[in-house]
Amino acid sequence: MRNPVLMFIGGVLVLLGVLSLLSTLTGFDFGAICWPVGLIAVGVWLLFRPRWVRGGTAVEVKLLGEVARRGTWQVTNTEYWLGIADVDIDLTQAELPVGETRLTFYGFIGDIDIFAPSSAAFMVTSQSFITSGKLPGGKEDAVLAPVTYASPGYDQAERRLRIDASMFLADVAVRQGGI
Fold first, then answer.
1. 14 lies in which domain range?
2. Are residues 87 and 39 part of one domain?
3. What total number of domains does the chain contain?
4. pTM of the model
5. Residue range 17-28: average pLDDT?
């Protein structure tokens, strides 16, 4: 279990369990301290996270709602920070640059639908607590295990799209063709 996302989730769950046990045993309300400190930590992390992102990567934050990209557009390296979101990205008319382009999704709950052209080479990795993946290789459900798929010839393709999802609950679907 060397996956950093899963290690973080596991660590948080163990910490919450220990604090709950200590609260029960001592009568001291650790929640009164932990929630404000946790909110401050998340706020600081959100403020400084864009500075840690690789150069040339756009960051989009959407706490609730939909992320939709359709039509003709230039695909660039992008990180999406989502609370609860429905993501629909149609790449059938998009311009994919030479080399590897990454779309990375972080969030709590996400329904991610990617529509790739038949000629696209892509790799999908979901490292979520619970993942439901509908990929060209078949349907795969996983708990605390990564779901990975790479289209044939991905490593040799001139234009590659890498899709990474790290969420608590993720429903990831990649379909060949348009909407």
1. 4-50
2. no
3. 2
4. 0.69
5. 84
